[in-house]
Specification:
This protein is α/β, with parallel strands linked by helices and about 425 residues long. It is about 25% helix and about 20% strand. It has 10 helices and 17 strands. Helix 9 crosses helix 10. The longest helix is centred in the middle third of the chain and has 25 residues, at about 245-270. The relative contact order is 0.19.
């Protein structure tokens, strides 16, 4: 690739804090809240104009899995507009406001429309980031940085080792652009919530019909109720063979997913009961990226750890629970390695603090789907409820480290666990 030489320039320092959080998705909001609530001066940086990431801008339909405890439960309560009847169903407008209120109450400094462009590393220690925004090129300095960008952009720019996708060939799970349709007769409508829900409808079996009539690589039906009358969330666009760390691929994926929406709606009208008069009312502002970088941490969580419901001595997240939700890497539906309905482990599992510590860089924590885990384990812990509690653990640990003047690797894990239990996380040994 051709390069140019950029002239050196002085970069103004726009903030100097104890804890900096990059990325305001569910993990980032939780990390910033927890750091600030535990007494740390905290700034939260987000490249888009809303907080919440995939849970809001991405129009995610619901909080998946059966994770329990911690800040996740508080967010459910604050954003619920169903009177408790459908706590896990997301109204993104209500959730945006709930996030903003929580951050303001905690005293977090929030900066939207601000992209992290590089990491400031000295002798292997991360001391802040450089950003680009309407305000120009700026630096934010911090004692501890928490990477909640999903793709691990800060960690990668700081030089932390990682691999892309599954180890056999580097390929990653498909991307999806969520959208919503209105005009649905919900009294007759069906709501297949998993790839294995191949419901019988008058024309045949719904997943078989989708595979036959939808343009590949689309070809499955995932439909979810909302809290609004006649409105349904659609998780049905499907883009394979793209890299979420590449801007050209993201552009191509977003455009291709948008072009799938019209034939998907036509399919619903033609074949699915209750959807005969449906029409699109909204689509996500950002495409949903399921998998990119897997960082090398002090410990790598494995699928065997999850299946054994292992309780680690240095647990930082407890009662995490989902399945091996591997979307087909080569087409529609569930990948041959995925397990949904027949997932055998119902107890939940723990995630050790070591998974949040990337090797090779000091003063940095990971939270969200980029923590250290295998490709298959990642398909479980990548979901938003678990990411929230990963953020809670990272933010609390960051505040404890700055208060004690210690590195994040020196944090007393037993003290961290006591603090997390006091904040509502459930004891995995109980």
């Amino acid at each position: 690739m051709r390069t140019i030489q950029e002239p050196a320039r002085a970069v103004p320092v726009a903030g100097e804090v104890e804890v900096l959080v990059a990325g305001a998705g569910p993990a980032g909001v939780a990390a910033a809240l927890s750091a600030a609530r535990n007494g740390a001066r905290t700034v939260l940086l987000e490249q888009f104009g809303e907080v919440g990431g995939i849970s809001t801008s991405g129009l995610m339909s619901h909080w998946t899995g059966s994770t329990r405890g911690g800040l996740y439960e508080e967010i459910l309560d604050r954003a619920d507009d169903s009177g408790g009847a459908a706590r896990q169903t997301i109204n993104p407008e209500r959730l945006k406001t709930a996030y903003l209120d929580l951050l303001e109450e905690a005293g977090v400094r929030l900066r939207l429309y601000t992209l992290v462009s590089s990491a400031l590393v000295t002798a292997g220690s991360l001391r802040g980031v450089v950003t680009e925004s309407k305000s120009g090129r700026e630096a934010f300095l911090a004692q501890v940085c928490i990477d909640c960008t999903g793709d691990g952009d800060v960690a990668a720019r700081a030089g932390a080792p990682y691999q892309l996708g599954r180890p056999s060939d580097g390929r990653m799970q498909p991307m999806t652009l969520m959208f919503k349709v209105a005009g649905v007769d919900t009294s007759r409508a069906v709501f297949p919530g998993g790839f294995e829900d191949n419901l019988s409808i008058p024309a045949g079996r719904i997943q078989d019909l989708a595979h036959e009539h939808l343009p590949q690589p689309a070809g499955h039906v995932l439909l979810y109720r909302t809290t609004l009358p006649g409105v349904v969330s659609c998780n049905m666009t499907n883009i394979i063979g793209v890299d979420g760390t590449n801007a050209d691929d993201l552009t191509r994926a977003h455009a291709a997913a948008r072009r799938q929406i019209e034939p998907i709606v036509a399919f619903l009208r033609a074949w699915v009961p209750g959807y005969e008069q449906c029409y699109v009312i909204s689509s996500a502002a950002v495409i949903g990226v399921r998998e990119t970088r897997h960082f090398e941490g002090e410990y790598t969580l494995t699928e065997d750890d999850i299946l054994a419901a292992r309780v680690f001595d240095d647990w930082a997240v407890s009662y995490a629970h989902f399945n091996f939700d591997v979307h087909n890497i080569t087409g529609a539906g569930l990948d041959e390695t995925g397990v949904q309905r027949h997932f055998p482990q119902a107890r939940g599992y723990t995630i050790p603090y070591r998974c949040l510590l990337p090797r090779g860089v000091e003063n940095l924590l990971l939270a969200g789907r980029s923590i250290s885990g295998t490709h298959l384990a990642h398909s479980n812990f990548r979901v938003m409820p678990i990411c929230v509690n990963l953020g809670q653990a990272a933010g609390t640990a960051a505040a404890l480290s700055t208060a004690a003047g210690l590195s994040v690797r020196q944090v007393d894990v037993a003290g961290l666990q006591r603090r997390l239990l006091a904040q509502g996380m459930l004891d995995p040994r109980a």
